C-alpha cells in the first residue's frame, strides 16, 4: 500500500459527512474481546495489515486493557507493546490513533507518526495530558470517564444519563480548550460501557443527536460490548453491525470496531 502524505492523512481525519471506520488493534493479553490474539508484534502487525486490506480508515492501537476489572500496566510496558507496531504500520501507510491515558505514551506515539490520541479518561487520568496534546497539536479524542476499570461499574449511577454525561464531557472539554487544545482538534466519545449499565448505553445511543449538537466530531465505540447481548463477544457481532448501520447518515464521525471488513463494506457501498 502506498504511504499517505501527512496532508492526505489530515484530509482523511477531517473528511465530510461519510462515517469513518476505526479498527481496534489491542496489543494486550487481556482485552475483553480479543485479548492475546494480537499480543505478539508479528501478530499485531499482520492484523493491522489485514485491516488496511479490509478498508479501515484509522487503526486505533492500544497496549492497556480497559475492560471492567482490568489492572493497569506500567508506562514502560505499554510503550514496549505499542510503539514498534505503530512505527511498522505507519511505514505501510496506515492512519494511526494511539489508545492511551498516559501523556508520555501519547507523545512518543505521535512523534512516531500517530495523528490521533484516543484518551478514554478524557484527560482525567494524567494531569499532563491536555498540555501535552496542546503542544503536539494532534487530534484528540476526549471520552466520558468516571474512573479506572477496577471500579468503574460501581460508578454507573445517574439520574439522567444523557445530560450528566454531556455535563461531565463539557467540563473536561472546557479544561482541554483552556489548556490550549484547538477546538478543531477535538473529537468526543460518550464512552459506551464505561461506568454505564445496559440501560444507560441504549439511552445514549437513542439520544446521540444531543452529543452531535455539541458541535464536535463524535466517535462511537460499541463493538461487541456486553449491553448488545450474547454470552461471548463474538456472539455480539451481528448486533454491532446493526448499531453501526443505524448510525450511517446520523452525523456520527466514526465507529470504533473489531471486525473492519463488514463495516467498511457497509459504510462505503
From TrEMBL:
Protein name: dihydropteroate synthase
Cellular-component GO terms for this entry: cytosol
One Gene Ontology MF term: dihydropteroate synthase activity
NCBIfam families tied to this protein: DHPS
Entry keywords, A to Z: Folate biosynthesis, Magnesium, Metal-binding, Transferase
Pfam family, one: Pterin_bind
Record's catalysed reaction(s): (7,8-dihydropterin-6-yl)methyl diphosphate + 4-aminobenzoate = 7,8-dihydropteroate + diphosphate
SUPFAM superfamilies: Dihydropteroate synthetase-like
Recorded metabolic or biological pathway in which this protein acts: Cofactor biosynthesis; tetrahydrofolate biosynthesis; 7,8-dihydrofolate from 2-amino-4-hydroxy-6-hydroxymethyl-7,8-dihydropteridine diphosphate and 4-aminobenzoate: step 1/2
Pterin-binding domain: residues covered: 19-268
EC number: 2.5.1.15
PROSITE patterns: DHPS_1, DHPS_2, PTERIN_BINDING
UniProt-listed GO biological process terms: folic acid biosynthetic process; tetrahydrofolate biosynthetic process
Cofactor(s) of this protein: Mg(2+)
Amino acid at each position: 500500500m502506498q504511504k499517505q502524505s501527512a496532508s492526505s492523512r489530515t484530509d482523511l481525519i477531517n473528511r465530510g459527512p461519510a462515517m469513518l471506520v476505526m479498527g481496534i488493534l489491542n496489543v494486550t493479553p487481556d482485552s475483553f474481546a480479543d485479548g492475546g490474539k494480537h499480543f505478539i508484534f508479528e501478530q499485531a502487525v499482520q492484523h493491522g495489515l489485514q485491516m488496511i486490506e479490509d478498508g479501515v480508515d484509522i487503526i486505533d492501537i492500544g497496549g492497556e486493557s480497559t475492560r471492567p476489572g482490568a489492572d493497569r500496566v506500567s508506562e514502560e510496558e505499554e510503550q514496549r507493546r505499542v510503539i514498534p507496531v505503530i512505527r511498522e504500520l505507519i511505514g505501510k501507510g496506515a492512519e494511526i490513533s494511539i489508545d492511551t491515558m498516559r501523556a508520555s505514551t501519547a507523545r512518543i506515539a505521535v512523534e512516531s507518526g500517530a495523528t490521533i490520541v484516543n484518551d478514554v479518561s478524557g484527560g482525567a487520568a494524567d494531569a499532563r495530558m491536555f498540555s501535552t496534546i496542546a503542544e503536539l497539536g494532534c487530534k484528540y479524542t476526549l471520552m466520558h470517564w468516571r474512573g479506572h476499570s477496577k471500579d468503574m461499574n460501581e460508578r454507573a449511577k445517574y439520574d439522567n444519563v444523557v445530560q450528566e454525561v454531556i455535563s461531565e464531557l463539557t467540563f473536561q472539554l472546557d479544561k482541554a480548550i483552556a489548556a490550549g487544545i484547538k477546538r478543531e482538534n477535538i473529537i468526543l466519545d460518550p464512552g459506551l460501557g464505561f461506568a454505564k449499565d445496559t440501560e444507560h448505553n441504549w439511552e445514549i445511543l437513542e439520544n446521540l443527536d444531543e452529543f452531535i449538537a455539541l458541535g464536535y466530531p463524535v466517535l462511537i465505540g460499541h463493538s461487541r460490548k456486553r449491553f448488545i447481548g450474547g454470552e461471548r463477544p463474538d456472539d455480539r457481532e451481528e448486533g454491532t453491525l446493526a448499531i453501526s448501520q443505524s448510525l450511517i447518515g446520523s452525523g456520527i464521525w466514526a465507529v470504533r470496531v473489531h471486525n473492519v471488513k463488514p463495516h467498511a463494506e457497509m459504510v462505503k457501498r
